[in-house]
Design goal:
Arc Repressor Mutant, subunit A, 9 helices, 2 domains, three-stranded antiparallel sheet, Rossmann fold, 221 residues, 44% helix
Length: 221
């Protein structure tokens, strides 16, 4: 995936995925300024990578002086589109869905879960923190009424594709999918991130048995 900043520049997906890591470091620092060396070290990347990533969006720092933290925070939040906040729906109120909702409620974040839906009558009407689990039959109405643009799928594999199609048809623009199956492969207008925890663990097992650490960086990219 590539993103556009302005009219002509294409931003690599890997650069976009590093920006939240930079933002986390910046929001935790107490310094007024930070160098690319310090930022890269704290985020887990080289100073050259930091400078290359920021170069896609303009000149944010001054050579030998570094970056003004407050300004850089504002710019990264603007670039990511989280300066106004993002409303999220969680589809599936099982163990994983419940844990994710509780995590977002207990941690400061710019992605706010505003709806949780499920098909199980036993959980519909129950509470997860400040949210009440609602009937998945109302999914489309909730998306429109609450102006939700992002969704998290924590449903079984057999239900994931149908749920993703409903979300896309309702106007959802991005989906984080934890079901062990790819979804919306024919809907390029919707950004999908598939996270299969078992596949990730199996890949990590290679490095546990002695794979070269440098190869782990290539796996992430």
């Amino acid at each position: 995936m590539e993103m556009r900043e302005g009219r002509s520049r294409r931003i690599p997906d890997t650069t976009i995925r590093r920006l939240p890591a930079y933002l986390r470091v910046l929001e935790l620092t107490h310094a007024d300024r930070i160098t690319s060396v310090a930022l890269g070290k704290a985020a887990g990347y080289s100073s050259e990578q930091v400078r290359k990533d920021f170069a896609y969006f303009g000149a944010f720092g001054t050579r030998g002086v570094g970056y003004e933290v407050a300004f850089l925070v504002r710019e990264i939040r603007r670039i990511l589109g989280i300066d106004q906040g993002v409303k999220v729906m969680v589809v599936g109120a099982g163990h994983l869905g419940t844990a994710l909702v509780r995590y977002t409620q207990n941690n400061r974040g710019d992605a706010k879960v505003v709806a949780v839906v499920d098909v199980n009558p036993a959980v519909i009407g129950t509470s997860i923190g400040s949210l009440v689990v609602e009937d998945a039959r109302d999914l489309e109405r909730l998306v429109h009424e609450r102006q939700i643009t992002m969704a998290v799928l924590t449903v079984p594999d057999y239900a994931a594709r149908a749920a993703a199609e409903r979300l896309a048809d309702a106007g959802i623009r991005a989906i984080l999918n934890f079901a062990p199956v790819s979804v919306l492969t024919e809907r390029p207008e919707v950004i999908v991130k598939n996270i299969d925890l078992m596949l990730e663990l199996q890949a990590l097992a290679y490095f546990v048995k002695g794979g070269a650490p440098g190869e782990a960086e290539d796996l992430e990219a």
